Structures are given as structure tokens and as C-alpha cells.
Amino acid sequence: MDLRREIDAVVMGASAGGVHALQAVLSSLSADFAPPVLVVLHLPSGRPSRLPELFAPHCARPVCEAYDKQPLEPGTVVFAPPDYHLLVEDRGHLALSVDEPVLYSRPAVDFLFDSAAAAFTHRLLAILLTGASADGSEGIAAVRRAGGVAWVQDPSDAASELMPSSALALAGADEVLTLNKICERLAAY
């Protein structure tokens, strides 16, 4: 798949084991990686996130935490803040929501993937990584229904296989890849 031609945005979701997995994936992005990258990592509620500070030194792209009505900037890596769902409001803006948690998680992967699928349809790449929750399964299904591309980490390669296994059981994937292969594919962009 030629990402330069086909993809306008990338969404990623992770939970248990996700810091390591996201560090590997985000460090594989080149300085000229054009699509915005939107990320949900399950976080404990009630305390501030340090994700931008944690990931910025390992990423060649700007890294920030989302705010409500934020313009969607090319090449930027945007993390969902704790206690808020991150949504793509339209192709140009992000929104934050305090809707009920999904499978005990807010932010939830499903919220991001569903809204991004509606906004970007066939020009979206969704990447679901390691996690100990079924969150993300419905989101992968939505991405695939909209014609987007879904990569799911190989459960046998994941620190916690429940999240990728659940997504594969419910929705399948366009590709099931090891973490190293995901990094290679994004680095080749």
C-alpha cells in the first residue's frame, strides 16, 4: 500500500504494554511523515498525562496532547488526554468528549476510530496495538466498513494479546503485523 497516495490520517490505539509499542511505532515515523497521527492510550483517570513529554524525544514529528476544537495539523502526533474521549469532529478539527467510558476506558479507542472512519473513510489507516481490553474492536470494524485500512498487531507479538485478538475475532484486519513490521512499513513511507 502506498501511504503517500492513499492515507490522509492515521489513528492508533493501545492499552497494556502500549507505551513500549507506541514508542517503537512513533520513533519509526520520518520527519516528513505527512498524515496527522491521532493516538489513544488507556490512561488512569484523575492525574495529568506526561505522554507528549515521554514521546517527543523519540519522535521526529511534533507531539502534543489534544484540546477541544483543535485544528488537525499535518504531520502532528496528537494524544488523547486523560478522562476525555478524542474524536475527529470533521476532517479539519478534533473534539473532546466526556461521554461514558467504553469498557471502563475514557479515552477509548472505539470513539477515536469510529469518528475518524466517518471523517476520512477510505483514506484512513487504523493501527491497533497491544492491550488488555476489547476496546478498539468496534472501531476496527467501523474503519473497515468505511473502506479504511486496518492493521492489527499480531496477538502473539503483543505484550497483552486481548485487544488485538478481540479485534481480529470481531472485525478481522487488512493486515496482521508484528510490531517490527508495523514500524518498517511506516518507516518506508
Automatic annotation (TrEMBL):
GO molecular function, one term: protein-glutamate methylesterase activity
Catalysed reactions listed for this entry: [protein]-L-glutamate 5-O-methyl ester + H2O = L-glutamyl-[protein] + methanol + H(+)
Record flagged with keyword Hydrolase: yes
Keywords, in A-Z order: Chemotaxis, Hydrolase
Pfam families: CheB_methylest
Single Gene Ontology BP annotation: chemotaxis
Assigned EC number: 3.1.1.61
CheB-type methylesterase domain boundaries: 10-189
Domain of life of the source: Bacteria
Active site residues according to the UniProt entry: S15, H42, D135
Gene Ontology cellular-component terms listed: cytoplasm
InterPro entries: CheB_C, Sig_transdc_resp-reg_Me-estase
PANTHER family registered for this protein in UniProt: PROTEIN-GLUTAMATE METHYLESTERASE/PROTEIN-GLUTAMINE GLUTAMINASE, PROTEIN-GLUTAMATE METHYLESTERASE_PROTEIN-GLUTAMINE GLUTAMINASE
Name of this chain's protein: protein-glutamate methylesterase
Organism: Fulvimonas soli
